[in-house]
Specification:
Elements: H1 54-69, E1 73-79, E2 85-91, E3 97-103, H2 106-110, E4 124-129, E5 143-147, E6 152-156, H3 165-188
Parallel strand pairs: 3-4, 4-5
Antiparallel strand pairs: 1-2, 2-3, 5-6
């Protein structure tokens, strides 16, 4: 990564946005009495499915760091209402929704043509790639981010198409519930009936 792309972690400042950072998680929400059977698969299991390949994971990490610097905080692998899964879905201070597709190689890019199906669920869409990826392959109706495991930079801004209010509300609610479900799973980890050192606060 070129030196121009590097910035200090001390520059990262909290922004008034919905903060739900996640690593490699896929999935959805925990089943409850109110669970609807017609919810997409990602709404049933918030646990991670498969770790990303090393290069994709590096690009994902750097992109999430860039997003947080810009005031956007994201979830990885969020399943949408059309059953497609966005690599990163992020929400900004004004409630705008930015989705990012990670491509680790030319083969990865050419083997996936589903990215246009994400555009109905976000205000803007970008591709995040490594610094050795041929930038001319990225279509003009999407933005371009270059990232490594530590940092990222926007090379080309993504065109913006504002979502309808009802669609924005639905995507934001899905985002919030998925983030809350993953935090619930993380908080529950390690609590077992046989551990006498852990007691329930509920009497």
């Amino acid at each position: 990564m070129k030196a121009a792309l590097i910035f200090s972690l001390s520059a990262l400042a909290p922004a008034p946005a919905l903060i739900c950072l996640d690593v490699q998680g896929l999935g959805g929400l925990i089943r409850g009495p109110e669970h609807k059977r017609n919810e997409p698969p990602a709404m049933n299991n918030p646990a991670p499915i498969d770790p990303l390949p090393r290069r994709s994971a590096e690009i994902c990490r750097g992109t999430l760091r860039l997003m947080s610097q810009l005031g956007y905080y994201g979830l990885t692998e969020m399943t949408l209402a059309n059953h497609r899964r966005a690599d990163i879905a992020a929400i900004g201070p004004g409630g705008d929704i930015w989705m990012i597709e990670i491509k680790s190689s030319i083969q990865d890019f050419r083997s996936d043509t589903k990215w246009r199906e994400y555009m109905d669920f976000c205000d803007r869409l970008s591709f995040a790639v490594g610094d050795d990826f041929p930038q001319e392959l990225i279509p003009p109706d999407a933005g371009l981010i270059i990232a490594d495991a530590f940092y990222g930079a926007i090379i080309r801004e993504a065109p913006e198409t504002r979502l309808a209010p009802a669609r924005r509300k639905a995507v934001t609610l899905r985002f919030a519930r998925l983030g809350a479900a993953r935090l619930t799973v993380a908080a529950d980890a390690g609590w077992t009936p046989g551990d006498d050192g852990l007691t329930s606060p509920i009497k």
